[in-house]
Each structure stands twice: as structure tokens, then as C-alpha cells.
Amino acid sequence: MNRASQHKAGPTFSGQLGPGKAAGAADTAPEEGRRWYLSLLIHIGLLGASFLMLYPLLWMLAGSLKDQSEIFGQASLLPQKWDFSAYARGWSGMTISFGTYFWNSLVIAVLSVVGNVVSCSLAAFAFARLHFRGRNLWFALMLGTLMLPYHVTLIPQYVLFLHLGWVNTILPLVVPKFLAVDAFFIFLMVQFFRGIPRELDEAAMMDGCSAWRIYSRIMLPLSLPVLATAAIFSFIWTWDDFFGPLIYLSDSGSYTVQLGLRSFVDSTGNSDWSGLFAMSNLSLVPVFVIFLFFQRLLIEGIATAGLKR
After folding, report:
1. Buried b or exposed e, range 145-163, using 16+ CB within 10 angstroms
2. CA 264, chain centre distance (Å)
3. Per the count of CB atoms within 10 A, which of 100, 242, 248, 262 is most buried?
């Protein structure tokens, strides 16, 4: 009887935490709180750094909506009076419409993209897959051109194009792109091509494919990320190029966007700053669109170059 009552009255702790578990839970709470505060500080710092990086763009956007006298007279980003007339004035207020400059830049950029992708991929395929005498020497010389500043070859190129009668045309800006002159793209594609298994080439050769068919039917379809990377960089660099068009283009009807923006600044002090900021904002739109739509291919092409797959 006593044993039964003792067994019935005996306490059980199956649903309660032991002393060790309770102490562990108490120690976890302050640690999670510290992590939360650390994460908050990191995000605040990143937001502050992002604002500092975006501030010039925000200031230029706000300047395009301000009156001419208000741009440099106030430190506030928000204009006192929202004025959108700078966009209409900047687009069609000059002798030549700014749309002409956009069209010129687009033509040069598209031709440069086509030329770089085609010529550099052919050169990269030769260095990565074909065997010919002096291949390593020519590859080393090609890489050596990366260390040459553009200004070193500027005068010889200008003299050559002048004798060819190409000055004041877009030919000096476009034709070299079809001759595989961008060593960076060649090197990037060579590293990517070397990561593609050679067994695919050997199987294609056993089926009777020539080097051209291997390049066009096997290498190019498998190299879409690196080709997209070269195309994006080529478009952005050509679109933002100021020095090349400044040297070779003298007719205002052939100006690119960058030279057109320079036309808003007058050496006498009568500069249309709001119109300049408005057209500068519009000139950034193609670059933003290209990057937003193709950023996945851009990152994939850079990240996978040189990796074995």
C-alpha cells in the first residue's frame, strides 16, 4: 500500500527543462540580440555607402528639374519648382537634334559589338583549339598589348587613317573592332574555351566536322555567357567613349552622345547646365537597360571563365 502511494505521488520531470538546457537557452538570447544589432549596423553602413555612391546621380537628376539659377545656388536635392522643360530644350534646342547623337552612338556601338564578338571569338578559338607554329609566342605578344596605353598608338593610328581618308568618318571607330584588337576579350574567351571539354571537338572531328563547324556549331552555342560578357562590355565602353570620337569626328552631324553633351558647355560661360543634366540622364538609360537585362549572363561569363566544367 505504501509502495503504491509512493509510486503514485512521485514527481515526474519529463515535460520540464533541465538545469543545463535552461542555462543554454538563457545564453542564446543575448547572443541572438548581439547578432541582430550587428546585422542592423551593417545594413545601416551599407545604406549609407549606397547613398554616397548614388548621390551624384541623384544630384544630376535633381539638377535637370531645377531652374538654371537654382542648380548651384542651393544645396537641397529637391527643387523648389519642378521644371521639365530642360528635357525638351536639351533634346531639340540645339541646331542638331540630340536624337541624331543617340543614333550615331547606337550605330557605332552596335557595329563595335558585332565586330568584337565575331573577331575576338575567332582569335580566341584559334589560340585555344588550333595548333600552329608560334602559337604561344603570338599569344604572349597579344597579352603584351594589354600593357600598352591607348595614347602610345594614337598618333600612328591617326596618321594611318588620315592617309586612308577615314578621318571624319566612323570607320576608324568601327573597322579595328573587326580585326580583333581588344586583347582583353580574346584572353577572356580563350580562358572560357579552354574550360570546354576537348572530347566534344574530337567527337565532332570523327564525324567529319571541320574547324569552322566545330567553332560555329559547338563552341559558340556553349560560350553564350562569355560572348554576352564581351558584348555588354563592348557596348558600354563604346557608348561612353569620348576620346576616340573627339579625335576622329569633326562634323557636328557625326557627333556621338558624349560629344553632344560637351556641346552644352560654353567657354564664354553661357552653359545650359539643366539641359546638360537632362541629356546626361537620358544617355544613361541604354547602359542601365543593357546591364539590367543581361547582368546574369555578365556575372556568369566572368565567374566561369577559366574554370573546368
Report:
1. eeeeeeeeeeeebeeebee
2. 27
3. 248
For residue 1, what pLDDT is reported? Answer: 44
Measure Cα distances from 250 to 124, 244, 307 in Å. 35, 11, 45
pLDDT at residue number 183: 92
Whole-number pLDDT of residue 175: 95
What's the one-letter identity of residue 262? R
CA distance 232 to 226: 10
Give the model's pLDDT for residue 6: 47
| SS3 state at 166 | coil
Length of the chain: 309
- pLDDT value at residue 27: 57
Residue of 116, 129, 104 lying closest to 218 (CA atoms): 129
**Burial (0-12, 13-18, 19+ Cβ within 10 Å), 223:** buried
Grid cell, residue 186, equals 580574346
Residue type for position 245: P
Full-model pTM: 0.80
Decide: residue 275, CB within 10 A, 0-12 exposed, 13-18 middle, 19+ buried.
buried
CA distance 32 to 38: 10
In the block, residue with C-alpha cell 525638351: 88
CATH of domain 96-304: 1.10.3720.10
* Average pLDDT per consecutive 10 residues, the chain (309 residues; last block may be shorter): 47 48 57 82 92 88 83 76 85 86 95 95 93 91 88 91 94 95 92 89 88 90 89 92 93 91 75 86 90 76 55
- The DSSP element (H or E) to which 35 belongs, if any, is helix 19-63
Location of C-alpha cell 591607348:
150
Q: Which helix (H) or strand (E) holds 27?
A: helix 19-63
CA distances from 227 to 32, 198, 297 (A): 46, 19, 9
Q: Give the three-state DSSP class for 74.
A: coil
